[in-house]
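Quick bug: ABC transport system ATP-binding protein output formatted oddly.
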Amino acid sequence: MTLVRCTEAARTFGQGDQAVVAVHGSTCAVEPGARIAITGSSGSGKSTLLHLLAGLETPTGGAVEWPELGNSAAERSRDIAVVFQGPSLLPALTVAENVGLAAVLTGVSETEADRRAAAAMETVGVAMLTDQLADTLSGGQAQRVAIARAIALRPRLVLADEPTGQLDGETGAHVLDVLMAAVAETGAALVVTTHDPAVAGRLGEHWQMNDGRLVVPAREGVR
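Here's what came back:
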């Protein structure tokens, strides 16, 4: 029942003397219902690892597989949602249009996408912003909308890259509350990268990145 598995997966950028190893050979697995925090300092490789799990980056060594999700990009796009650290909404679209767009792009009808968007916005508490343009939102509002967009896909796996990293403590805590509640309601697995111990403490399983090297406690079931 593994959603995604890395087997000695590595990612190097550049070639020759300019090569930078962002992730050394890393082995890990995400199971249904998982709640995982990937911790590490800035530049440790945790975002690159998350992108490998999402299929946004191709490993330069080892392998990444999605046994329960399908290995084609089209199959994965329906089951994996990514919440990015920085601005990711289309500024000229309304909140409702942003939330529904990802579902439409995966082949969901516009009627169904609108229905999912409305439900997702209600779940994360941004229904009152439906017709507001994305470029008028505060940072906390934008992150909540990004979470709504993710869960409107009805994914089996949500990958969140420093979702509170650019927010103040109170706003960040609220956004994390929204994210945790949303994945609990949908039943999706959740992997969050963070450098904040308070965020990591909210998730049951902890992985650590140090200079591109992943450490997963043996008791978590990784061989």
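Actually, after a second look the formatting is fine. The mean pLDDT is 89. Closing.
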